[in-house]
Amino acid sequence: MIRRVAIVGYAQSHHQHNMQKTREDMVFEVCKEALHHAGILREELDTVITASTDFLDGRTISSVFLSMAVGAFLKDESKVEEDGTFALYYALMRILAGTHDVALVEAHTQGSTFNPHQVTFYTLDPLFDRQIGVLNDIAAAALQARMYMNRYSVSEEHLAMAAVKNITNAAENPCAHRKMPDVSVEEVMSSKVFYDPIRELMMSPISDGACALILASEERAKEITDKPVWIEGVGSCQDAYLRDRNIQNLDSLQMAARTAYKMAGVKEPFSELDVAEVSEKFAHEELMIYEALGLCQEGQGKNLIERGTTRRDGEMPVNPSGGALGADPVCATGLIRVIEAAKQIRGEAGGYQVPDVRRALAHGQFGICAQKNAIFILGGNGS
Question: What is the CATH number of domain 5-114+206-224?
């Protein structure tokens, strides 16, 4: 990148099933806290980017109602649909273009307002898939999981092990939704079946939550903080529609990762990254994500789980915060991964801190079977 950009502040809510506050209050609180964390005033913001969807917010032109809450009045403001990592991408481009120096990025979803799994029905082909009424995001994930499992001899126990790792990690995270410190493989495998092999504890919970972070150009970042988290590489890719792609692999994620790695100069991700925060909406996706990110060979994701490689104390920790299985406020989930990765670099992750993190990966996704993906490579001053 010609112009360096850093994360200089962030905040997130305590994600939960049914937050007893309005969307505006929830968003206002995280934006205010992010500004406080960065040590700057609203007046110092040049632009504000929000991420949500009208479907999940339950109202059209939903960002209009949040202008005051995010501090965007009398500011350059824009909205990005879907995951917050795409809003971060947009804010990054604005700063790289030289038109702005400080940006606030906010993302939120109150899953208790409209069930996100019902909302995904409207992303399906209206002339065929919607008319049949069989598919939704969980059913499609079940098809993907079974195809992947059959191809690479992955067992349901492997999925349960991935779920246990993340849910156990989430218990140490005060912002996570799920609090099940003693969950076992047996408990996961005996939880309610939605679509075989997807069980309740193998999929992300429906969460209310919001988050916000502050981006700054290099000049402003050095004025604001002595602990900037630099964005070293970024990549994004959108795959074809569900029926027009091979869902046994996450090809768009692999392409996004390759772009980000090239920009950041990462050649061996397993050895060059210290931690990864990924958006695994379902347990089987985490194994597929390992492979798409180049942390292991195709079909070998199960080996990382078996060996404990991706545990918080493993060689390549993945989701020490608990990931999406710990909390999934849909449009905020990817941006939360960026915040969690930045916390690891700054040493602010508390009870789930991984030692000596210098470089981290954060991943956001949106769409059925992880159709759209974004990757950020982050580094601290010593990376």
Answer: 3.40.47.10
